[in-house]
């Protein structure tokens, strides 16, 4: 049997104490790790996966691989990811131990008032203010699965893609440092070090697989944290699909894409690099990100199946199919770990960068944010003759992040007041008209209040000038092709699974106390016998290790 009976939280606390563990509320981030039985930590991050999705699947498939992880490991039933709940702050948080105010990473496409625009060659006298794009736009060729490497046998030969992702970034697309007049690579943009940095300093092997070469950011400030970064481009043209369709527009295509990364990790479990061509030894820190649950939640339909949820929290047929896909791939990892005799030295951590909102289909309200921002600019210019646009950069998924050309408190309050005064008509899950008020926003933090929300200093060059938390169910999109999104602060955006299974962990424990995904980073180091205090963000935020020992 894969499952063991779960012990209640009181018994769990005793079990954790018996193996030297501390409760989540009292774990000391400054304490060095005792000797650990773990030599390898495999981190699996499943975009969009909620704790409720995991519980739903396990209840119906008690002999599944996911049931084995949750039932035989330590399951934290109240884990939350970062705000904003986007891929980049979510993943960076898992591997640094820090929130955006400390890491400096607020989204995958943001703005810095301290950098110069991409392409700047002569920096003297250029006014700072630049987009910081960490998406597929950085690729040498964003339309190619290999990001522009030039492989001839795609998609089958994608495992031959380089593990040096920085080589595939076009430096002309990077913002420029005014002090050096040189491009700022993602790893240099990150303010703190990563688990990979610390592992490399300890002489350990590292590997990772993700969806853009911009995940080179996880190399950390050293630029050398990940020895083998396999990052096929998910937003490239999906080979064998209609022109203009990337790997996220069809769920079967996303599964195919995820399977390439699965094969890379299986090769690493076997002691090779991601391609399987070179013997390197099993990494101490490695893993991958799954994308296919996310597309099954976002797409109204795909492959003849309805996407999203049928009733609040109940996966529909497409999502149920995809949960089974992820379960099979996790099972393949566990089987290969066992086949290689690594059970006693490998810890598996399962979580998610972010959830997806809404899980109640009737709550969906799609709002076109374009007219709202255009209206804000027009109102600003009407009130300030001769002024330019107020919005310098905006990111709106199911939250609203604005960087303004005028960062004064008066300007940020102007933006807040305008947005909260706007009403209009969006559309619901059935495409029918659906009214909204206050631009779909529940709360707006402006200027100094936005900085305080993120625990950043007022005037920080990276912090958004306006941060709007949307009402439940609001998704900012101009069409009807999306039924869920992430990025906000709703429970559906943030309530993700967190399971630690295998070497160095107690057996069959459920912890109901609140924990955060930023606690994964110090936990990984502790499992490997390394000092969590070696992480900058752990020292700054006093991030606690999870109670696994």
Which secondary structure elements does this structure contain, and how are they paired or packed?
Blueprint: H1 9-18, E1 40-46, H2 51-60, H3 65-72, E2 74-76, E3 79-80, H4 87-96, H5 100-103, E4 109-112, E5 130-133, E6 176-177, E7 182-183, H6 186-189, H7 195-201, E8 207-209, E9 228-230, H8 251-269, E10 285-290, H9 292-298, E11 301-302, E12 305-306, E13 309-311, E14 314-315, H10 317-339, E15 346-351, E16 365-367, H11 369-383, E17 391-396, E18 399-404, H12 409-420, E19 424-427, E20 433-436, E21 441-446, H13 448-453, E22 466-470, E23 474-476, H14 491-494, E24 495-496, E25 499-502, E26 509-511, E27 515-516, H15 520-527, H16 536-541
Parallel strand pairs: 1-10, 1-15, 2-26, 3-27, 8-9, 16-23
Antiparallel strand pairs: 2-25, 3-24, 4-5, 6-7, 11-12, 13-14, 15-25, 17-18, 18-22, 19-20, 21-22
Helix pairs in contact: 8-9, 8-10, 9-10, 11-12
